[in-house]
Structures are given as C-alpha cells and as structure tokens.
Amino acid sequence: MSSSTIYALSTVYGKSGVAVIRISGEEVLNIISQMTDINASTIKPRHAYFTSIRKKTTKELLDKALVLYFKAPHSFTGEDIAEIQCHGSKAVLTSILNELSEFDNVRLAEPGEYSKRSFYNQKMDLTEAEGLADLIDAETSMQQKYALHQMEGNLRTLYSTWREDLVKVLSYLEAFIDFPEEDIPENLSEDILNTVFKVKNEIETHLQQNNVNERLRNGFRIVIAGEANAGKSSLINALVKRNAVIVSDIAGTTRDAIDINLDMGGYPVIITDTAGIRETENPIEKQGIEIAKEKISEADIVIALYDASSDVNSEFKVLKDFKGKVFYVANKIDKLSAEQISNVEYKKHIKISAKYNQGIDELTKAIIETIQDNFSSSANCLITRIRYRKALEECLDNLDIFNLNKEIELSVEDIRLACRAIGKITGYVEVDEILNNIFGSFCIGK
Prior knowledge:
Layout: E1 5-9, E2 19-24, H1 28-35, E3 48-54, E4 61-70, E5 81-86, H2 90-100, E6 106-108, H3 113-120, H4 126-137, H5 141-151, H6 154-177, H7 186-207, H8 212-218, E7 220-226, H9 232-240, E8 258-264, E9 267-273, H10 283-298, E10 301-307, E11 326-331, H11 338-346, E12 350-351, H12 360-374, H13 386-400, H14 408-426, H15 432-439
Parallel strand pairs: 1-6, 7-9, 7-10, 10-11, 11-12
Antiparallel strand pairs: 1-2, 2-5, 3-4, 4-5, 8-9
Helix pairs in contact: 4-5, 6-7, 6-14, 7-13, 13-14
C-alpha cells in the first residue's frame, strides 16, 4: 500500500453551501500547521476548529472553514485524517485542492483509496466495504436497510463463523498428517463430519435466496401484459403517478417494451409496459409482441391486464407457464354492470380503473406484499455480489468431495480450498487480484 498522504473532495464538485475535503496520511498535521491558524501540536482529535485556510507560502486567505482532526488509528482509514468543511464554490475548492497538491508526498486519492486503506488497516473487511458502496448507491429504503446491515458486519460474521469452523477442522486434520500411523479417534471423526455437514447445509440454505440480492440491487421486474388496448399504458401511468408513456385508443400504439424505474414500498421496481399481445401482420408490431413475451419470461411478477368491459374472453394463453407470479387485473371497471363486477370478484381478479385511478392502491399493496413474501430475507444477510455466490459455490464443491476415507493429505486440501474460497469474500486471504475491481467502482472521495 502506498505511503503517500492522499486528499480528495468527498462531496460532489460544484456550487454548494458546504463541501468536505478529506486528507489521510502521515502529512496531515504538517498540512494543518501550514495551511491553517491551528497549533498542530495541541490540536484535539474529534474537535471542530473554525479557522482560516491559507496558502502555505504567501499565507493568502483562501476560505474560512471548519477543520476536524481524527488521530490514527481511530479514523475511517486507520491513519491520521483531517476534514476541511469549506464553502462549496468551484473557486474555493480549486484553490484548496491546488494548494494541497503543492506538498511533498501528498497526492490526489485514487477511486476507492480511502476504503482500500481502511481495509488494509483492518478497519473493515471486504463485505463491509462493499456494503458502504451499496449505501452510497442506495435509492430506496430497502436498499438502504440491507446496505446498513452489511456495513454493520452481518455478512462478515456469518462467513467468518463458517470459515472458523472449517479452520478448526483443518487444524485437527493437519495434526494427523504428522502421525500417519495413527487413526483419527472415532469421536473426533464424528465431530469433523458433523461440522462439515453443518457448514454445507447452512451455505446451501444461504444460496437459496431466489437471487434476492440481484433484484434488490437492480430492481424487481414487473411486466404489464395483455391484449392490445387493454389499458396497459394507462395503468403504468397510474402506478408511477405521471404520464410516463403514450396513451391512445388506437390498438398497437406501444410497439416496444418501455421500462420505468419506481420506488414501491421501499423496494426498487422496474415496471415494463409491453406491446399488446394479439394476432397481427404488421412486422414491427410482431417484433414488439415477441419482445413482450421475452420480458414476461424474465419477470418476477406479471400483471395480466384485460378490458373487463369487452366481450372478448382474455385467456392469456401466453401466461400458462408462469403460474405463481401472475396477477389477473380487470381494467375499466367504471364501465361494468353490477353483474359484471360480481363475475370479476368471483374469479378473485383485482378490479381497477386505470383511467380514474380506482383500485390502484389495492394493486400496489398486493405487489408489495408479494415481493415481501417471496423476495425478502429474515436473516438480513443477502448475497449482494456475484463473487460471493461463486466463492460459496466453490466452497461447496470442495466440501462435497471431502471425506475421511481417502489419504489424509487430500482431505486436508479439500478443507483448505474450502476455507480459501470463503476467505476470498471477506479478504482473509491474499486477494490483490480482486481488490482493484472492488474499490475501483468507488467515487474519488470515498
């Protein structure tokens, strides 16, 4: 890890009331001494000082700001840190950043370098660092919730527990390598096999989460499907509470699938408006219908919308293979007779009028409840990265071939590789090849 002192703007560059510049490394006190009116030898950690920020040579005033000092190792990076809370104009920021660049052994931070130093100084593991990245990117309350759980170490604790159990097994087995003439005692052999079985079972359960993590990060996919002119575009406008798509009485207006991002009950949702499914000779509309069918196959929830006032019997044959994720929704109930409404209720279909915003709250509630029932984790431990899943699958592969009937050296290697696979997730093994990929996605000031 570089020994240079690093600095960066930790807030967004541009006009703002307050901006934060973060400095981390051995030169922090020297910078404070030369650029402020603070006596660096008597500065108190975690105290806010209102002071002038000046050029180090000419002492020209650059700004009036708050300065906070965090003494190593009690800081985010584990190094000395100073934060300058200055005014957020471009001129002020440029002048202070330029002045910092004039110090020897001081340079602009690379993307994610603060968090990378925190990892190297054992202030956080890789799962906590990636939880921080998820929190910064969070747009909904559920994304915020699970990112905070990960930052608090929920995943680290879970994975470390499995690794510690396997390390214990490894230590037992390695002890017997030096004594090949001795058999492993029966009680110890049983303990080893039970531990491996328990870890395998828990990892397999952990992996069976319906890819909740991917949906929570990228959005739960809801597709509105149905015949042409059923009111799909009107429904999507009612759900997002704005005119997001064109509404027309002309059948076939929607030719392509249109994605709309929405926060629904704290969950990130992508609602897709698709082309009306019907028989047509129009080649462009045909292509749109094929796209609609493809979107339906990829969806987490399908809203099968039909015009309840029409005499046409909507069978939704295209949805016959998607039981369990289809909501049948009767639209245009404002045009129905009491007998027709009774018929819809008998079928237990959801009744709405997209045009007059009737039944939309009930439909929204049903969608949220379905997401909660099928795509939530009571343990608050989600597999939030594909690399976690691959590492856990690698661990399972090694545990699957482990047994005590083969040569002890081979059994030891199976457990060692399983430990290493879990260690890749938290960073307990040498993982330099993946660190740049992880921290390179962070913003400069984080």
